[in-house]
Write a structure and sequence with these properties.
Helix content: 25-40%
Number of helices: 11
Distance between the termini: 46 Å
CATH class of one domain: Alpha Beta
Strand content: 5-15%
Order of helices and strands: EEHEEHEHEHEEHEHEHEHEHEHH
Number of strands: 13
CATH superfamily of one domain: Ribonuclease Inhibitor
Largest sheet: 11 strands, parallel
Structural class: alpha/beta
Mean pLDDT: 84
Low-confidence stretches: 134-144, 324-335
CATH topology of one domain: Leucine-rich repeat, LRR (right-handed beta-alpha superhelix)
Amino acid sequence: MTTIPADRIYSLEGKGLKLTTAEEFEPYLEELRSFENLEELRLNGNTIGAEAAKALAEVLRTKPTLKVATFHDIFTSRLKDEVKESVIAICGALSHLPSLIELNLSDNAFGPWEHFLKKHTILEVLKLNNNGLGIQECESQGKAPALHTIVCGRNRLENGSAPIFAKAYAALKSLREVRMPQNGIRPEGITELVTGLASNPNLTVLDLQDNTFTESGSAALANALPGWSTLETLNIGDCLLGAAGGRLVIEALKICTTLKTLNLQYNEIEMDGAIALAESLRDLKNLESIEINGNRFDAESNAVELIKAALSENDLDDDILGPKTASDVLGDDLADLVSQMKKDLAI
């Protein structure tokens, strides 16, 4: 994310101010007017009314150096019509700022922010956590070619928004980080999303935790993985990959040699998937963290010993497994274990 020198940041962060009128906002707006070379503005954790927002908008228009605007949670306790009026005023001002590249709109009723997003084509980082977007409110997020980071979690997007996001992602081709956890997206929507994301070859971080993949969504992800040659973080924990889906993803992972962080926990992966994971891990020499708890193989089973042995082959400490999932002592030779387990499972 963008780093700004402290002397170029104006902050009212977390003060709990209730600013309803322009007069109530005026002492702070006067400070803002006289703040030269402003690069970051933090207003989060206050509540702003429509008249105060209009006064703020007039000041914002005079700040062409502004790069980062943190506006999450600024409409608490405001009525819907008042929020809409405030958003229109602030968006009108933001759209005139030639340096604005990072915007945090989380924890607000989304309203007409989308009109700004269509027009402001230099935006690089967009945060939309917990905005109540629903399934019809997301048209054209991220169509700007400069946009490289989208954070959009806990928005109840479900499948209805997936085609819109997928279309935007496919058009972008510039994304490096996408985080969309806890959105209730089901396999059809996951398939559309990862298919759209496949057009972004520089993707480095993908977080889809706590959505639902099953076999079809997992197959789509497995097909997309080879195209992300710089992928470092993959978080698909709590995504119900299932036995078949889990194995599809795991077998595709061996191509992701840049991977550093992998979360596969609570996905109903079974013993054959764990064996496949051990095989794939032998190619993942850059791993720094892997989560596999809560699957359908015993934490004390030979499958975990295989995984630890594969890590050991790459000179990786089994501490990267996080909480201990097996004893601290490796079992027999890796080849003997693989042979015996495949025989037991008839694979």
